[in-house]
Amino acid sequence: MESLHYHNPYSGQTLITFFWELFIRIWNFLRGESYPLATDEVQILVLIGVAASSGLVGSFLVLRKMTMLANSLSHTILLGIVAAFLLTRGGLDYAETGMLNIQALLGASIATGFLTAFLTEFLTKSARLQEDASTGLVFTTLFALGIILVTLLTRSAHVGTEAVMGNADALHIDDLKLVYFVLAANVVLCILFFKEYKITTFDPGLARTFGIAVVFFNYLLMAQVSATVIGAFRAVGVLMVLAFITGPPLTARLLTHDLKKMLLLSVLIGGFASLFGVALARHFLTVWGIALSTGGVVVCVISLIYVS
């Protein structure tokens, strides 16, 4: 958790003083003072954006009992990340900035998501495998292929480590663009198709009677999940993002039976866990000198909120 070429105001802060410093900076910002974003603030904004996107799509996944497919997608997306790296490594973004091209990332991730969903459905219906067996077979195979390609083709880059485990402490302000682009897309799609998502989630048979294309909205949701995972991989990797997708919605489900309230609570719970997790990671570094993974701390906070 180093500074971004200037003194980090959160260095040496404990849990309480962290929030006090954050409050002061927000207050001064509202009064017209301008600050460059500190490392901790970039982490907070990125993780809150990831949590909000995950809460929106994760709520529908939890209600549809499709969290295993989300687990599959979060693993197989690694293959799409490698594809995006290979498509852009000779040129532009990665060589100059160390960041992958956003369009290539989204395109490759959505294509991989569709491939995962298609192969899972194909094995279930054509090979007559159980759905969980199909899901397990597809995601382990594609994930293994992604690991192999990372090992062989991106050995000199940081893509492999960041894609699998994430690195919230290495986030840059430019990471906000992808995260909030994905969040904006998820918000727009959830508003535009709220009724369709609702009816296909709770009563797909009735949806077909009304002429609603259930398969289309299943694949659209998979595309949103794929994009959400891509938005999160720099911060928490393709493994821990599953906690963002399932944890807050499961907690919200315990608190309400209203879909709109569940969506809102999922976003709020994930956002709170992100803020508190960053502050807690800074506290451990200040008080005990332990540099913990910020993304890992946030995931632990999400789990603690659920069990409590």
What does this molecule look like?
It is built from 13 helices and no strands. Helix 3 (67-88) runs parallel beside helix 6 (131-153) and helix 11 (214-255) crosses helix 13. The protein starts with 14 loop residues before the first helix and ends with a helix. The chain is mainly α and 308 residues long. The longest helix has 42 residues, at 214-255. It is globular. It has helices spanning 15-30, 39-63, 67-88, 93-97, 102-125, 131-153, 159-165, 175-192, 194-202, 204-209, 214-255, 259-287, 294-307. The model is unreliable at 1-5 and 90-97 (pLDDT under 50).
Give the topology, please.
Blueprint: H1 15-30, H2 39-63, H3 67-88, H4 93-97, H5 102-125, H6 131-153, H7 159-165, H8 175-192, H9 194-202, H10 204-209, H11 214-255, H12 259-287, H13 294-307
Helix pairs in contact: 2-8, 2-11, 2-12, 3-5, 3-6, 3-7, 3-11, 5-6, 5-11, 7-11, 8-11, 11-12, 11-13, 12-13
N-to-C SSE series? HHHHHHHHHHHHH
By oligomeric state, this entry counts as single chain
The dominant shape is globular
The count of helical stretches stands at: 13
Biggest sheet overview: none
